[in-house]
Design goal:
The chain is of the alpha+beta class. The protein is 39% helix and 26% strand. The protein has a six-stranded antiparallel sheet, sandwiched between helices. It has a five-stranded antiparallel sheet with strand order 7-6-5-8-9. Strands 1-2-3-4 form a four-stranded antiparallel sheet, with helices on both faces. The two termini are 38 Å apart.
Length: 446
């Protein structure tokens, strides 16, 4: 039995790209390693590279977190993946022992950093910080109001001239107003406007889709102008639509929700040079959804502490919202445990009813988590779909590699599927067949 609670697929799901996945598998053999060891908290080993000194690799099993002395900027690197895979594949090759000094030093540094962060949250901001923050917020509010007034006129012109003319406009037509929103410090609105550029060339019924998108943008403009009259939850929602950040220390200081959370699946998207990772959690007792966002710019690594297909005992703190889902992990205890995917909905109708309720509360809701049992892969009119037991069809947003993985694992038979629903398409992120979890590639091009 493996001393860690992961399977091969879960470890490979941590790979930052396909080349790291393959390289990690190639290193999952004892002949590549020396000084292997494991204890209750950590796993370590030394891997001989091209240099004279071997690379020292260690893993904090409580999250997991990785550390390696190799020069790779990928995270986790191939050595971290290889070491964890070796522990899963050949557990008898790694003996229990005492952590060497270099492992203890890294763990101690992590512990001190965690304590410092928790202490900062407990102490809260000083009066000087609060005053300076209020001034910054007032200035930004004025900038946003000026920008939105211009956007409102621009939207009125679009509708007055008719949508037919929009189809002949270039990308710069949309990007110009999006850039104005960036100048007005409303990057969330800029992203929504840029998304309109591709709708006009998206095929049949593009007019309805574009009108819906412009209406949602207009609704956000009007809502921000009446911010004071809205509920605190809706105020927070509108601010997040604008792209206003929320102080994470304030979120962590709020009351959390303790539960055993399953990491249902993850997706990664690239916005310019910014990588955005969504990790979806589901509470076993509370039946609550939680979405943890992680950002990385350029070559910076994304956080891998939430492993798909595992259960964690944790306390989750939610951002204020009419449909609370975005959250932070406030506190977690013990190592993650592997387990099967837990379906939430029996049919598409059940899932869509929950989505409709959430959309009614939050019109800016862009994606919603679906975990449905007994979905069968089918090709209908050239489109790859998933059919439930009632005969309902979900069109999917899936790349070729993930399509092949889904077909190979399911064998064309019904499986439990978790994914993101955007109102039209379902993006599968993980599947379960016979009680075994399989994560799909998180960041593949669609």
């Amino acid at each position: 039995m493996s001393p860690v609670n992961y399977n091969r697929e879960q470890v490979l799901a941590l790979a930052p790209d396909e080349s790291s996945r393959k390289a990690g598998e190639g290193l999952a053999t004892t002949r590549k390693w020396s000084n292997l060891g494991i204890d209750d908290r950590s796993l370590w080993g030394e891997c001989q590279g091209s240099g004279s000194r071997p690379y020292q690799t260690c893993i904090d099993l409580a999250e997991p977190a990785f550390k390696c002395t190799c020069p790779s900027r990928k995270f986790p690197c191939k050595h971290g993946l290889g070491l964890l895979l070796l522990c899963v594949n050949e557990p008898s090759a790694i003996q229990q022992g005492e952590s060497p000094e270099w492992v203890l030093a890294w763990l101690e540094k992590r512990f001190e950093s965690k304590e410092k962060k928790e202490r900062k949250v407990k102490e809260g901001p000083t009066s000087v910080d609060i005053e300076a923050q209020a001034k910054r917020q007032a200035k930004r509010h004025a900038n946003i109001e000026d920008g939105l007034a211009e956007l409102d006129r621009w939207l009125s012109d679009r509708i007055r001239q008719g949508l037919a003319k929009v189809q002949s406009e270039s990308y710069e037509f949309w990007d110009g107003m999006a850039a104005r929103m960036v100048d007005a410090q409303a990057p969330g609105m800029a992203r929504m406007i840029r998304a309109c550029a591709s709708i006009a060339s998206s095929g049949e019924n593009w007019q309805e889709r574009l009108l819906e998108r412009l209406s949602i943008i207009h609704l956000a403009v009007q809502a921000y102008g009446r911010l004071a009259s809205l509920s605190p939850e809706l105020q927070s929602e509108v601010k997040q639509v604008m792209g206003l950040t929320v102080n994470q220390d304030d979120i962590l200081a709020s009351e959390g929700v303790a539960d055993i959370w399953q990491v249902m699946g993850q997706s990664i998207e690239l916005e310019d040079k910014l990588k955005v990772k969504r990790s979806w959690l589901r509470g076993g007792k509370t039946n609550k959804w939680a979405m943890v966002l992680n950002f990385a710019y350029g070559n910076q690594p994304l956080d891998v502490s939430l492993m798909p297909g595992t259960y964690i005992l944790a306390e989750i703190a939610y951002f204020p919202s009419t449909t609370p889902m975005r959250a932070l992990v406030k506190k977690r205890d013990g190592e993650p445990l592997a387990g099967p995917l837990s379906p939430v909905y029996a049919t598409a109708d059940d899932a869509l009813n929950d989505y409709a309720s959430a959309k009614a509360s939050n019109p800016w809701l862009e994606i919603f988590p679906f975990a449905i049992e007994n979905l069968s892969p089918q090709v209908v009119n050239g489109s790859f779909c998933l059919r439930d037991t009632a005969g309902n069809l979900f069109k999917t947003k899936i790349d070729r590699l993930n399509k092949l993985r889904l077909l190979a694992v399911s064998g064309g038979k019904p499986v439990s599927v978790f994914g993101e629903w955007d109102g039209e398409l379902l993006r599968p992120l993980s599947i379960d067949t016979g009680g075994r979890y399989f994560g799909l590639e998180a960041g593949g091009k669609q």
